[in-house]
């Protein structure tokens, strides 16, 4: 068995499937049941790069158990929870395939569409194939509304190249993956970073299914954080908004100044306290908004200057890629944990 696995490591990999995972022990059996037959029927050399993003449940143990009978399964374990986009970065950095598909473990994005993506990319010579959610009826009304607002805003700020209703289910060519790895971005949002490349792309539509098991890894707080990272990472529009707010506040101040001087000339200075109070509150609010927006951009600059790794790898069950990507890796591979009964 070890000799067979070593031989497979040297065989050119056509397709890599990168799956970030965080506490997915409930969804993992269903994922393997559906994904493995799809890849087997493709009939091309492939690997499945499961990135364990510091899970606290039995995700690591289940991956080790599945790997005993599935040699194409490769496990990259991170030392701590680094976030979905960082775990996706770790998988892309280590994927060896000529084509790389990113897929979530909750099966809301169907793995059965992977053959269609690969066929489309090969037939038309595409570097990117987006999985587009044509039907989101399984999501809640608030989820559909917030997603619609997010994509409309991103298309307005980052340009029309951002496909509507396209998440992190996509296929990338080796050229696209290498281009992403060469970018210096620390806080990556691949939903905007991939379209920014401008490489030839296509789309495969699908119906979004309910989550198989477990809880969502993108609650409201993380959705807001993703929106903030998206806006500040790909547009200077908030700074321009701050400028316009400052200009508007200046105009209001001039109007209040005229009103104050008029009231003083007419001897009605006492009643002016309402306008004065309103003006002070308004200017203070505008200043806080502007300082907050400026601080968001300064924080991103500070993070970029620090240039700290976005993830740390505990072990990789396959030989690490040359260069090691953007994460810091422990050269010692620990023993694989034995799954509990």
UniProtKB/TrEMBL annotation:
In its keyword annotation, does this UniProt entry include Transferase?
A: yes
A single GO molecular function term of this UniProt record: glycosyltransferase activity
Instruction: Give every Glycosyltransferase 2-like domain span.
Output: 16-179
As given in the record, the signal peptide range reads none
| Transmembrane residue ranges | 244-266, 272-294
Highest taxon of source: Bacteria
What are the protein's UniProt keywords? Glycosyltransferase, Membrane, Transferase, Transmembrane, Transmembrane helix
The membrane topology noted for this protein in its Swiss-Prot or TrEMBL record is: Multi-pass membrane protein
Q: Where is this region: Disordered?
A: 319-341
EC number(s): the record gives 2.4.-.-
Q: Where in the cell is it found?
A: Membrane
Transmembrane helix: present as a keyword of the record? yes
- State one Pfam family annotation: Glycos_transf_2
The record's listing under InterPro entries reads:
Glyco_trans_2-like, Glycosyltransferase_2, Nucleotide-diphossugar_trans
State the similarity comment: Belongs to the glycosyltransferase 2 family.
By what name is this protein known?
A: Glycosyltransferase family 2 protein
- Identify the species of origin: Streptomyces lienomycini
